[in-house]
Design goal:
The chain is 34% helix and 28% strand. The two termini are 37 Å apart. The protein has 8 helices and 12 strands. Strand 3 and strand 4 form a beta hairpin. The longest helix has 18 residues. It has a 7-stranded mixed sheet. A 5-stranded mixed sheet has the order 10-9-8-11-12. The protein has 324 residues and is of the alpha/beta class. The chain folds into 2 domains: 167 residues, Ribonuclease H-like superfamily/Ribonuclease H (Nucleotidyltransferase, domain 5); 135 residues, Ribonuclease H-like superfamily/Ribonuclease H (Nucleotidyltransferase, domain 5).
Length: 324
């Protein structure tokens, strides 16, 4: 038995990174279609076992939550069910941005399904749900996005929580949540860095929020770049804006930036900008720019997995704005 709940409410929203468009006969947006952004998640504990799924539908003027579960399911079946139910709940044809942390779902619907149909679904797991999903996609124009799960993205965390609550409801048992808290560091100035990039669209954005006696924002967009390059640009721009030496903490969701500045860069410089394997350091010019911008300051580089402050969330919004 599947149980579904729907809880509409109004709030603000943001988007993440960009993916692939699927719709029979269409590769571009139909301007007349209304727009909706959907986030989905699903899972089973154990796998296979009791399953739950969740979806958030974000309209221009409101949000709607859907959730449900099954006593006997799998991770993949719950991921598929979340997407199917969300699409089936739409009352007309939409231009949809759909975000999932399941590569199985995204790759299945954007890459594998044509061959499955040609083979008449032979040797395909969960053919009933894949056929339902294929049918559900036909009346919409859908752009599919993959996001990394449990990485602090607000809506991905939210649908994960919806799915978890459904499992708790069906089993009657509480599930312990892992709480990750960004360490608090004392400093005169706090800087929050974020970047996002779509390799399919070959465009990306970066954002930086500086907190001193007041807040200051910087953002930008780049073509034919990478997320690593964008976090370096964001950090350099923020530091170059400071007028005098300061005690600073930089918060970032990029381990490339955090480890690069706190662990790797001194060794690279000693080795003439070569790695431990003797290879040239990638993005050397951007790293050199950042090292120069950081020189006057005392800086602590902190990896921030979750966007657990308004400033971190704002940097994320600035970075993702060019991708919308």
């Amino acid at each position: 038995m599947i149980y579904t709940s729907q809880q509409p409410r109004e709030t603000n929203h943001t988007n993440l990174a960009v993916g692939s468009i699927t719709k029979a006969g269409h590769n571009s947006r139909t301007m007349s279609k209304p727009k909706v952004t959907i986030y989905t998640d699903g899972g089973a504990r154990p796998n296979p076992g009791t399953g739950g799924w969740g979806a958030v539908l974000i309209y221009p003027d409101r949000e709607s939550e859907l959730s449900g579960g099954e006593k006997d399911s799998t991770n993949n079946r719950m991921e598929l069910t979340a997407v199917i139910t969300a699409l089936d709940s739409l009352d007309q044809s939409y231009a949809v941005d759909l975000y999932t942390d399941s590569e199985y779902v995204k790759n299945g619907i954007t890459q594998w399904i044509k061959n499955w149909i040609k083979k008449d679904w032979r040797d395909v797991k969960n053919p009933d749900l894949w056929q339902r999903l294929h049918t559900a996609t036909q009346r919409h124009e859908i752009k599919w996005h993959w996001v990394k799960g449990h990485a602090g993205h607000a809506y991905n965390e939210r649908v994960d929580e919806l799915a978890t609550r459904e499992i708790e409801r069906l089993t009657g048992k509480s599930i312990v949540r892992k709480v990750e808290v960004t360490p608090t560091v004392s400093a005169d100035i706090r800087i929050y860095i974020n970047a996002a990039y779509s390799f399919e669209d070959k465009r990306g954005g970066w954002g930086a929020v500086i907190v001193n006696t007041s807040e200051q924002e910087f953002s930008g967009a780049e073509q034919n770049s990478s997320e690593n390059q964008l976090v370096l640009i964001a950090s350099s721009t923020a530091l170059e804006s400071l007028k005098s030496p300061a005690d600073i903490v930089v918060y970032t969701n990029s381990e490339y930036l955090q480890k690069g500045m706190s662990q790797w860069v001194k060794s690279w410089i000693k080795k003439g900008w070569r790695t431990a394997a003797g290879e040239p350091v990638k993005n050397r010019e951007l790293w050199e720019r950042l090292v120069k911008a950081a020189e006057p300051h005392q800086i602590q580089w902190v990896y921030q997995k979750k966007y657990d402050t308004p400033q971190a969330q704002r940097a994320y919004e600035l970075a993702n704005k060019p991708l919308r």
